[in-house]
Amino acid sequence: MSEFGPGSTHWDAGLAVRRAVVGDAHVDRSMAAVSDFSRPIQEFVTGALWGGVWTRDGLDRRTRSLLTIVMLTALGRNHELSVHVRGAVRNGCTQEEIQEALLQTVAYCGAPAALEAFRVAESTIGELSDDDIEAGKKAAGEKAAGEKAAGGA
Predict the structure, then answer these.
(1) Which residue, 130, 148, 48, is CA-closest to 89?
(2) Which end of the chain has fewer CB atoms within 10 angstroms, the N or the C?
(3) pTM score > 0.85 for this model?
């Protein structure tokens, strides 16, 4: 067993977060497509990134999602951008927050990158499943309840 592979603490936590953020259907498709060659990178990404970074306490999932879509815009990684726009919605981000995050990229990544990111995001939002929308509503409700309990709303 590797430090980040199946059966490790990082893997179990990472798989749970990955499923919560991008949805079971996406994770199941990704895992079904894993070859012997790509298995090490899938295990590393799931265990180290989803299990080691996304589970940290310093930022909430909504913030992590917005940061991720901005970074993917900067890198021009449109397939992953689409996955993480869906994840941002599932994490409770609003369309307005996604738009604002993408508008921020114009100044630092350039108009072509931002325009393409808007196209990808709009297409992805248009294809959201009922499950994605319900997960987003649940996450937004949990955030609002936490803020109210903390006296912030």
Answers:
(1) 130
(2) N
(3) yes
Q: Please, which residues have CB within 8 angstroms of residue 81's CB and are 6 or more apart in sequence?
A: 69, 72, 73, 117, 120, 121
Report the C-alpha gap between 65 and 8 in whole angstroms.
24
- Rounded to whole angstroms, the Cα distance separating 56 from 52 reads 7
Determine contact, residues 17/52, Cβ cutoff 8 Å. no
Radius of gyration of the chain (CA): 16
Helices and strands, counts by H and E, the chain = 9, 0
**Which residues are CB-neighbours of 32 under 8 A, at least 6 positions away?**
none
Contact criterion met (CB below 8 Å) for 86 and 124:
yes
User: Quick check: 15 pLDDT over 70?
Assistant: yes
CA distance 55 to 14: 8
- Residues 4, 10: Cα–Cα separation, whole Å: 6
* Diameter of the chain measured on Cα atoms: 51
Instruction: Calculate what percentage of the chain has a pLDDT beyond 70.
Output: 98
